[in-house]
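Molecular record:
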Amino acid sequence: MDQQPPWSIDSDTSHKTTIVGPDLQQELHWESLYPADDRRWQLARRIAASSSFARSTLLSNFLLYVCDRALSGKTEEISEHQIGVHVFGRRPGYNPSEDNIVRSYARHLRQRLDHYFEAEGKHEELRLSIPRGKYVPRFEPSKQPDRKISEGDAASESRPISNIPEQLLPARPLSASRRLGSRQFAFIALALALLACGIFAWTFSQHGASASADTSHPLWAQVFDKSRQTLLVPADDGIVMIQNLTRHSVNLAEYISRDYLAIKSPYNIDAQNMTDLDQQRYTSMADLDTVLKSSRLPEATPERFTVRYARELHMEDLKDSNAILIGSSFSNPWVELFQKNLNFEFDYQPKPNESVIVNHHPVQGELPIYKNDATAPSHRTYAVVALAQNLNDTGWVLIIEGLTMAGTQAATDILFNREAMLPVLSKAEARNGILQPFELLIETRSFGSNAPQATIIASRIYSKPAS
C-alpha cells in the first residue's frame, strides 16, 4: 500500500479541544473576545457546528479562533505561530518552519468552507472565506445571481456589515482601464498556461509508467536523513509567467525582495494585476508528480518531511535542513545559491526554446552547450540532477531541473529508477558510505508514438563540494 502523503489530514479525535453539538461547547486554548450576538460570529459558529466540520474539532477551532481575533480587531494575533500555539497546542517556542501543521490544516479549512457554502450553507446571506496565503478571514455578502435587487434594497442590505474591518472586506472593483488590462492579462496568462499544459499533457500521454517499481537506493536515505528536516520545494510557475510577461530574468535577490513587481510589462499589464499574479501559487503537473512520488518513499517520514512553496522559503531554511529543489533558477530562484558551483549551468532566456544548459568543462564526446530541439521529430530536451551540500555543509540539497516540463519529468524518472541510479551512486559513494556531491546530465527524446526515453549522457562526481 502506498504511504499516505504527509500533508493529508484525516478526521482527528485525539486533541483535547472539543466542539460538540449545536451549542458549540468548547474547551479551547484561547478565550473568546467577541460578542455572541454579531451575525458574523454566529455564521462562524454555524459553520463550525455543521456536518462539513463535524469530523474535525481542530478545523472548527481553527475557524473560530481566526474569526474571533479578526472580529475583535486583533489581527496581529492571526499568525501561523499564534494559531499553532492557541489552536494546535504547540509550545510557545515551536518553529513553524519545521512544523507545517497550520499550513496543512489551512488548506483543508478552505476546502471545507467551500463545501459548506455549496451545500448546507448555500442560502447564507454572508459568505466567509480565508484568502490563500493568509489566515485573516473575510466576510462578504453571498452572491445571489437569480435575485434582482433595487438600489434601495442594495443600500439597506449593505448597512448591517458596514462595520467590518477593512482587512476583512473584499478588494475594491477595478477601474474601467484596469478591467481592460485584466482581460489582456488573463488572455496572456491563459495562453501561457494552456501552452504549458498542452506540452506536458502530450509528454505525459507518451510517458507511461517508465519508472522502475523498485525505487530504493542510497540517495533517498541521505536526502531524507531522519536527524533533520527535509524540505521539498516545487517550482514557482507564477514567477515564470511574470518573467515571460516582463521579458526580464528575475534573480534570487529580486525574488526575495519582490523588486520585480516594479518592472513594467510590454503587454501593458498594470501593477495591480502583476501583484495579483505574484500572490497566486502555481506549479506544474511534473512537479506535483515528483512531490507525490517522494511522499511515497519509505524514507520520507511525515514528521521530518515538509512541502514548502518557493516564495515561503527563507535563506535560513537552506543552511542546516536537507532540501529537494525542483526547477532551475528560472522557475525556482533558490537554485541560484548552488548553480554557481555546478558544471552544468542553466542559461535561461524568457523566450520559448532559447534557453540552454552550458557545459563549462566538456570532456571528450560532450557538447559545450545543450539546447532544446522541440521542432525535430525526436522532441529532444535536457535536464540536470545534482546533489550538493547545504549552505552550512551540514546536510544535502538535491536539485531536479529541466529545460522544459518534459525535462523535469525525465529527471524524476531517472531518480526513481533504481537500475539507472545504482551505477552512478556506487561511484559517488565514499569509503564511509556517504554519497559525495554529483551532477547528472539527462537527455530525453521520443519518436512518433514511442514513449520518451530518459538517459544519463554525462556525469560529474566530486570528492569534495563542487567548486
About this structure: Residues 181 and 273 are 8 Å apart (CA to CA).
